Amino acid sequence: MDTQDAKNLTEQAGRSDVVRTGARIGHAANGLLHLIVAYLIAQLALGSSQEDTDQSGALSLLGQSALGAVLLWVVIAGLVLLAVWQITEAVTLSKTSKRISAAGKAVVYLVIAGVAFFIAIGSSTSSGTEEEATGTALSMPGGQFLVAIAAIVILAIGGYHIYSGATAKFLEDLDKNPPASLTAAGRIGYIAKGIALLATGSLFGFAAWQHDAEEAGGLADGIEKLRELPFGTIILLAIAVGFAAYGIYSFAKAKYAKV
């Protein structure tokens, strides 16, 4: 089988009803996770959160009830199929930037699906993963540079989310534009998520600058740092509204996305 044959098979897989339907379920699952994250951020703002304010915390909370445990497996299936669809996009798209973006999204969806799988089978997730990974990186030759690059990448992704929200560029991923209210939800959601990612990237930047893994952290840590700012409670509640808006938009994306 030559490269063109492999590309044709990948394109056929991306067009299959199973993958396309699964991708839409994956977008809806992503929306559900963001709604739960929004709830957890609001709880953190009010001082009563017991879970990490990220997808891992949302998945843990989801798995605490019988119905949630069933939904967890639906989330896993949807995210895996959404990742498969993104992989087909990474192989078949002609524009390099879009191929890289699709590949990156596929990795993210597979990682979240993996976390969900371990939660579903009863394995707990470690809370210090980011610090441990950063500590390992910093101990390697050139590790400080690698962590700095990670910080720049996260900051760039956060900045792009804000740009995408401000310009409504995210609508390019849709077959047709949703109602104005859902477009507004997308704008708010992308900007809020971008701000949270900027906070996360800043943590990695401080870790690289000070050569201290304890300064690093994931999305949950970045969001918690926002609470320490002046008017932190108000900022977190605004971010919670933003994540809820992103979740609502993700449900719209399940209907309107190009798949």
From TrEMBL:
InterPro entries: DUF1206. It comes from the Bacteria. The chain crosses the membrane at residues 25-46, 66-85, 106-125, 145-163, 184-209, 229-249. Pfam families: DUF1206. Residues 25-92, 101-167, 188-256 form the DUF1206 domain. Keywords: Membrane, Transmembrane, Transmembrane helix. The keyword Cell cycle does not apply. This is DUF1206 domain-containing protein. The lineage of its organism: Bacteria, Bacillati, Actinomycetota, Actinomycetes, Actinomycetales.
